[in-house]
Structure prediction request, 554 residues.
Amino acid sequence: MGGMTFVDIRDRYGITQLVFNQETDAALCERANHLGREWVIQVEGVVAERSNPNKNIPTGAIELLVETLTVLNASEVPPFTIEDETDGGDELRMKYRYLDLRRNAVRKNMELRHRLVMLVRQYLDQQQFLEVETPILIGSTPEGARDFVVPSRMNPGEFYALPQSPQLFKQLLMVAGFDRYFQIAKCFRDEDLRADRQPEFTQIDCEMSFVEQNDVLEIFEGLVKYVFKTIKGLDMTEAFPRMTWAEAMRLYGSDKPDIRFGMLLNELKSCTEEGLFTVFDSSEYIGAICVPAAATYTRKQLDELTEFVKRPQIGAKGMVYVKCEADGSFKSSVDKFYTGQQLASWAEVCQAKPGDLLLILSGETHKTRKALCELRLEMGHRLGLRPKDQFAALWVVDFPMFEWDETVERFFAMHHPFTSPKPEDIALLDVDPGKVRANAYDMVINGVELGGGSIRIFDRKLQAKAFEVMGFTAEKAEAQFGFLMSAFQYGAPPHGGLAFGLDRFVSLLAGLDSIRDCIAFPKNNSGRDVMCDAPSTIDPAQLDELNITLKPIK
Ligand code: ASP
Prediction:
């Protein structure tokens, strides 16, 4: 431009404009004209004030009048543009992740992650927590998922498991008298993947001795508040609400409710006349949400919502609506079964105002509540009630201790097998284990389970009882957890703790939809690292050394 060549030079800290002037050095300018995207260069020159500053970038007030130029390394043309808005699709960005990481948006997430980890270390250090590393090659530590396993060459036919979490080790550290432990811990779970799951992920893993539930909640509520204050400038002055699991399920249909907005679940079964509409008659549960000012929804919009709830992952069979018209009358998809008076009684239960819309689902209680939860979140999303820069945290407490699994017909620990029952429910272990509540808690922010933990069983007999309810024989419990049970014989303190998902924490703070963009080198939805092409087959010689023969793949 007018005998000048401008080049943007980018480093981790941003972009600076370089100026090459034909009049001062024509040969140098000519060389600059041949530079390409992503070349690595070294320049020397004079920093000068720009006559037309660029207010959009931090270095926009200055430019560098270049005197010498060295090309340190040329570059191929990158497969996608390295800019905030890139033309690279997901797979391409993952394949060339080192280029993707050059983009501001991705690098910023990594910087945020670093900042969060530093703050966590600082806070926990101040609270006397000791950072201890625990091993990666271990025996199984069940957290309800499948293990990744690693064959042992030195012990043919035997396998290590990668930790699903450092659970047993942190409990042993409490037996060891460490009092307060934390670790930024890599965990591995061989699960089907979703947007907020990765086969390997990081936890802020913590444990404390001589505590009761309230002590744990207070310390870690403090941590979350400290992080939000420092990173977001947000003062979360109020104590986080505590909601029982039963209440969360009843009011939100979820154990991780998004409490940024209302539209709670209302139960209509008890106020619905029998014998009129067979679908409702045969339903264990009828529930409604009241969508404010949505009575004007068109047939098309309502059909869309019906399609939404019928998706296999939501699983409702259909949806009933009631429009509470502005003139006080009602219009519904079940007009031929129920009188205006009946519809009015539903509206009353839902505290609906004229102009509101009731959306009603029915069926088996648990499934229907879950479907209503999805519908509520969808409506919250459509009505703009879930802004990414607004945060609402709560503790969900008093989880059931066990979950009944119909396929294998036995109880499983809802949190994990070392979770303590509430003392007042211990007697129920023998008579009605399904009713036992645990001293377990989750921290939930904006409908995301940020972390969870429990007070642990520290008594050998009670632990044996819990194993028995879960169908472990004494031998199996001994084989899997014998070392923990033995440790409990040597003066184990009462203890409890929790773990936060670090990746989720970062993505929540960054307002991301997926945890992938806050992990430097993530896996794709099939658990593959497309950059280094893992997992991959291994050399027959390696297999032989490990004493492993592969079966043909089914
Ligand atoms: N180990 C648990 C988990 O990974 C957390 C805890 O109970 O501390 O969910």
Remarks:
- The chain has three domains: 4-73, 106-243+393-540, 261-382.
- The CA atoms of residues 220 and 498 lie 9 Å apart.
- Residues 4-73 form a domain with the OB fold (Dihydrolipoamide Acetyltransferase, E2P) fold (CATH 2.40.50.140).
